[in-house]
Design a protein that fits this description.
Layout lengths: L1 H64 L8 E5 L5 H10 L6 E4 L7 H7 L4 H7 E4 L5 H15 L3 E7 L3 H11 L4 E7 L9 H27 L4 H11 L4
Parallel strand pairs: 1-2, 1-4, 2-3, 4-5
Length: 242
């Protein structure tokens, strides 16, 4: 009986002794499975990211070819790109909107300097052009534009900015306001027309960088609460006659 017990005891010890020998193989299998799962997740994320970038390029091309003959209550131009303000002033001169907001102007640029810089009639500039010195980025542009639209009771705006900047601009503006129709009017500089390899590399570097900013803005606007600027514009929207 003691031998039997001793045999069972040794058998138990032998089984326990096998565990350390098999454990490294188990860890390796688990590590391999985890690596495959992570690789699959990364591949799926890359596919979605690349697909999103392609859609972004399609949107940019669409805004670039969008009709430019729609009139609105007013016009807003977001400064920072080539020929943006010149085009916005042209739209104001063509009576495409009753008033123009130039958002994001450097604090050192006075109205007198701006009047000399852009081809706008002095009387029209005095009566119908507003200057925003407070906005420092696209989020600030949207907040200042929302407040401006609410103050004037505007319900439709022509948005002037570069083609690559238009998706993010519209996203931020729609997040900051409600009840205001936004009409995109994209402009593009000479660099967008270049055909040399270096120019195309620079062009797509700009587009990719803007896509990263746009992606981050989409996440933020989903997670962020409704801003106070939107509430101001909602009051303006309620004043629309039925």
């Amino acid at each position: 009986m003691y031998e039997a017990l001793d045999t069972e005891g040794r058998g138990g010890t032998a089984v326990q002794g096998e565990t350390p020998m098999t454990e490294p193989g188990g860890r390796a299998r688990r590590f391999g499975l985890m690596a495959r799962l992570l690789a699959s997740a990364a591949a799926i994320a890359l596919v979605f990211f690349a697909g999103g970038f392609l859609l972004f390029l399609v949107n940019v091309a669409h805004y670039r070819s969008a009709p430019a003959d729609q009139r609105a209550d007013a016009i807003v131009v977001l400064t920072g790109g080539h020929a943006r303000v010149d085009e916005a002033v042209r739209l104001l001169n063509d009576d495409m909107g009753a008033r123009l907001l130039i958002s994001g102007v450097h604090p050192s640029a006075s109205r007198k300097v701006l009047l000399k810089t852009f081809a706008v009639d002095e009387a029209q500039f005095a009566c119908c052009v507003d200057i925003d010195h407070d906005a420092l980025d696209t989020i600030g542009n949207a907040a200042e534009t929302a407040q401006w639209a609410a103050d004037h009771g505007f319900h439709s705006l022509i948005v002037v900015t570069n083609d690559y900047h238009m998706p993010r601009s519209l996203l931020e503006l729609r997040h900051a306001m409600k009840g205001v129709t936004l009409i995109p009017h994209a402009v593009f500089g000479d660099e967008n027309e270049a055909v040399g390899s270096e120019e195309w590399v620079r062009r797509y570097r700009v587009l990719f960088g803007e896509y990263l900013k746009y992606s981050a803005a989409r996440v933020r606007t989903v997670l962020a609460p409704v801003s106070g600027s939107r509430a101001a514009v909602e009051k303006a929207a309620l004043s629309t006659p039925n």
